[in-house]
Amino acid sequence: MSDLDDFKATYFDECSELLTALEEEFAAIEAGERDSDRLNAVFRAIHSIKGGAGAFGFGALVGFAHAYETLLDYVRDGRVELTDEVVSLCIRANDIVADHVNAAQTGEALDADYGAEEKARFDALARGESGEDDEGGEPLEDFDIDFTPVMVNLGHAEGEAAVEDVFDVPPMAPAEGSWEIRFTPHRALYARANDPLLLFRELAALGTMRVKARMGQVPPLSDFEPFAVYCSWEISLSEPSLTEAQIREVFEFVDGDCDIAITQAGAVPAADLAAMEDDLLLDTGESDLASLLALTEDEMALPEPEAAIASLLDFAPEPKPVAASKQDRFEEAPALSFADLAATIAPASVAAPKPVAVAPKAMAPANSDGEESHRSNGVQSIRVDLDKVDRVVNMVGELVITQSMLTQQMDETLRARYTELVRGLEVLAQTTRGLQDSVMAIRAQPVKSVFSRMPRLVRELATKTSKRIKLETIGENTEIDKTVIEQLSDPLTHMIRNSADHGIESPDKRLAAGKSETGTIRLSAEQAGGNILIIVEDDGAGINRERVLKLARDKGIVAPDFTPSDEQIDQLIFAPGFSTAEAVSDISGRGVGMDVVLSNIKKIGGSVHVRSWTGKGCRMTLRLPLTLAVLDVMLVKVGESPYVVPLSSIVETMQCSRASFERVPSGGRVLQVRGEYVQVIDLGKRFGLAKPASSADQFVVLCESEGSQKVALVVDDIIGQQQVVIKSLEENFERVEGIAGGTILGDGNVALIVDVQGLRTTHLHQNAA
Amino acid sequence: MEALSLRDDLGDRAAAAGQNSLQLIAFSIGEQTYGVEITTVREIRAWNGATPLPNTREYVRGVINLRGTIVPIFDLRARFGDGQTSPTKNHVVVVMSVGDKWVGILVDAVSDILTVNRDDIHNVPEGNSIDTELLNGIVTHESRMVGLIDLQAVVSGAKADA
């Protein structure tokens, strides 16, 4: 069933997107934006999740989602007021839906009564407000996805007689609460992966229903177009208090993708009736349907089309003889669901009428996307395998290199001689650059996808630690490379966990300190040059430096006689195995958290900086590269080898002859820049490369690593700026100290990327040793 | 680059080779001949310089660009402790796959493709640890001794001691 698995995978992808959307909507609702658009969006999301879950048979999820949906429905039409209590219940419900989805995905079983409490509260709310209202009295607990199959009959043969039989109420005798619906889906309806069957199921929940399919337009097989729509339905629905609005509501999602005519029973316009008759007049001998069915004859060894239909009907639980009066057939004919019918027709390889053929599409990706874009003119998107995008990215990277290589080959004589060629190359350069930007934009995603997971985390942490915590997110539309985003989730989780557990104090402590009871964690993202800054800030107690230092000394992370600066103490929280929690809790204290942050962030070429204000709070800044694939660099020479320094970390460059170096007791040099003393690293010495030039010809590249700590790199020559594609050294080799990776230059040679941050930390180690 | 094509004469030799035989690419370092199993060899190319890697052992000659991928080059002579090779255009890099990584080995010359019998492979005599560490076995081919290189051992431990 790999097809089904594919559908499932898509469904779960979709669910995670919908759940993300839910978080967003509720964040807005919680903030006071209680307009109906928000609620409708929530409703649609839950509805889509429920729909898919129903298709795959995730009963628990469907049950819960249904109860939730009912509450939302009541809120929407004003029967239940959207109080803070209801909002927080809904937020809790979102978490439960997420857990259900997760359980369905992993195949784990949740406790049978998981979410039962919330469900009961939904019911209580729904009942409490709607009182004796009958239509609201649908027992939620008893919700069962296995609706009674709807009755279907193939409008076949004996034309006029059949028409008469369609109605069990005499025509022209309007009956209260009795409705006739003519439902003609358009192609778009199926394209958006809606399934009429699901609509019918919902209708069936409204009252006593009969459905009649009109297949008069089905062409001969030779003209049959697989994606065309040939089938429409007539539905008669009766229930004393049924209103047109209720019926319209069922069709809300397909509005615009189908023709719906809703009339009170008996009030069918004569013209319509005539049209119906036309449709239904299927001559047995020449009928298109008959010719379709004739195809099945060989397999079924049936002499007549009519017998074939009879055999179709035989699949129903209680087959009735075809010879029985048509009246019987229509009024009491065995209920035959579309699913059964589909199962019957499909194997016979007859091109089944459209609705049957696309039924499984209910799970297809277009479903919610289609609905969304239809409703809100949202972004049209396609799902593309990331591997495919990466292949394009890599190829474009190679193209950029080739292009710059070509440009380098053009010397002055060539330029003078082949002006056309030069012009062509310039256009090529522009186009390549544009192509590269576009490709990178494909990979870029808003950080929202990660940020939206955090509100739930904060809620849970607040509950577990009995603190009151508010999460603010800023700049969630900042876009960043997909790979970076994927690597961001874990570090952010740890950082927020850290803030909630260690940073924010308990409410009484906060009050005692003169702060508001509720602590705030602010999560923000912004672009700063070629970097993205992700900042996690809290207004808690800040880092307890005394304790951190004491613990670090106890654990031997800091030598007893070494007195680190405040900033250095703050950075200690990133040391592996370091934890200030007195007891290991299920939130934190095992000492792996911040260490993970540092290593994950370093892995994607970023850096972490922490700054703490005692009693006021703590701020952690992640500096991340905008993209992992392309880097603006300065090309330098160390010895005879080319090296590149990321442009984003360079502050300025200067000639050594103009720089003022000072000696320090350790024998090293420091550089004085505008009253600041900066550590000097001679790359030639550090990398063990012979240095032919005298120091006067050398250059200083002043770099800023994280935490506004500067470092001056001494290089032998500065060649220029360019864009490079980062290549991994580790792919075929291993990590090299002080080197962040490699890249291929225009001449085909490999240049190494200097890891500025790494150089500085190894330098510190050496100093400490 | 002058990548040599091995495909043509490979075909008939492979056909001639029985089940119990092993095909080797033989290359020389000074007077000595060594071999690696032919299936691990991806490409043979002339030495065209490499970008040195800092903080690595002396036998890591650096990295080269192999059609967009960065491949490290190991100097086999230096790996055996005989000092660094002074490579010329006539020196050869044999690119091989070790596990899921591609590495290049700098040798003096590639001499031949040998077909040897697996039963003829002898153990490396105990004695010098470098020999036993870096060779999988020894085989005699036309009265020449051919050391079978243990690629995994050659490329491991390349990082300089901190």
Automatic annotation (TrEMBL), chain A:
Residue ranges of domain Histidine kinase in the record: 377-628
HPt domain: residues covered: 1-104
Keywords carried by this UniProt record: ATP-binding, Chemotaxis, Kinase, Nucleotide-binding, Phosphoprotein, Transferase, Two-component regulatory system
Assigned EC number: 2.7.13.3
GO molecular function: ATP binding; phosphorelay sensor kinase activity
InterPro entries: Bact_Chemotaxis_CheA (IPR051315), CheA-like_dim (IPR004105), CheA-like_homodim_sf (IPR037006), CheW-like_dom_sf (IPR036061), CheW-lke_dom (IPR002545), HATPase_C_sf (IPR036890), HATPase_dom (IPR003594), His_kinase_dom (IPR005467)
Domain (CheW-like) ranges: 630-765
Its job: Involved in the transmission of sensory signals from the chemoreceptors to the flagellar motors. CheA is autophosphorylated; it can transfer its phosphate group to either CheB or CheY.
Protein name (database record): Chemotaxis protein CheA
Provenance organism: Devosia aurantiaca
Lineage, highest ranks first: Bacteria, Pseudomonadati, Pseudomonadota, Alphaproteobacteria, Hyphomicrobiales
UniProtKB/TrEMBL annotation, chain B:
UniProt xrefs under Gene3D superfamilies: CheA-289, Domain 4, SH3 Domains
A single BP term in Gene Ontology: signal transduction
Organism superkingdom: Bacteria
Annotated InterPro entries: CheW, CheW-like_dom_sf, CheW-lke_dom
Listed SUPFAM superfamilies: CheW-like (SSF50341)
Cellular component aspect of the GO annotation: cytosol
Every CheW-like domain range: 21-160
Protein name: Purine-binding chemotaxis protein CheW
Organism: Devosia aurantiaca
